[in-house]
Specification:
The chain is α/β, with parallel strands linked by helices. The protein folds into two domains: 87 residues, Rossmann fold; 132 residues, Rossmann fold. The chain has ten helices and eleven strands. It has a six-stranded parallel beta sheet. The protein has a three-stranded parallel beta sheet with strand order 3-2-4, with helices on both faces. Helix 6 crosses helix 10. The longest helix is centred in the first third of the chain and has 23 residues.
Length: 292
Amino acid sequence: MSAKILDGKAIAGEIRADIAKKTARFREQTGVVPCLAAILVGEDPASQVYVRNKQKACEKAGIQSRLERLPADIDQDALLNRIGQLNEDSQVHGILVQLPLPDSIQEAAVLDAVAPHKDVDAFHPENAGRLAQGRPRFLPCTPHGIQQLLHHSQIHTAGRHVVVLGRSEIVGKPLALMLMQRDSTTGPDTANATVTVCHSLTSNLAEITRQADILIVAIGRPNFLTADMIQPGAVIIDVGINRTDKGLVGDVDFDAVSQMAGHITPVPGGVGPLTIAMVLYNTLTAAMLSEQ
């Protein structure tokens, strides 16, 4: 068996083209240009690449992009003050803070400072609470990208056992909530799952992952998931991006696992492009909400 590759880059391209059309229509109807402000603290090379990719994607979609470059030694109060200014700027519809932040800054305090109606990452406690109740304002970008990947690939989750390996606030927890809901933005085909959440300290981990019809791996360890940890024919979604001496690799041992899986995402070119597409989606949504 050789797994079918799930081309996240191609799917993201389709979604971004649709967002560009909707953005153009919105601008024509309202005269409002959706605007995303990205805050980059310090000179982390990976963060600079992510922000640059988001800027390019915004430009192609007709969304204005602002980059707030701040020094690594900025104090927390100054950073919070700048976020407050962006919150009050009516021309800015979405705000995202590129992570990680310097150790001297409390990440939670910064993310909590972003106005909920401009929180296109959906990290604010208000938006997390709305998600838990099944009435989200925005969906977290990587989990939403995974739902879109499944939807466009015609892989249904309803009634199936989905195992999420990883419990982060960014991917694991919100994704589990989204997949177990009765409905989703893409319809019932990407909801109504039976979801198990595991992590690195889960006992008998391989026994649980082998039960998964769909296995989503977001644990942050290169090549962590091996072929003996999956059932033949399973759908494998690799969220990991790990920089190694051999280049970028995911959390899945791709070469071995792809020989047993039914579907698998590559790294790069799998989930990553969809995350950026969902940032655009949320920015356009924020701009539309500002006009209501």
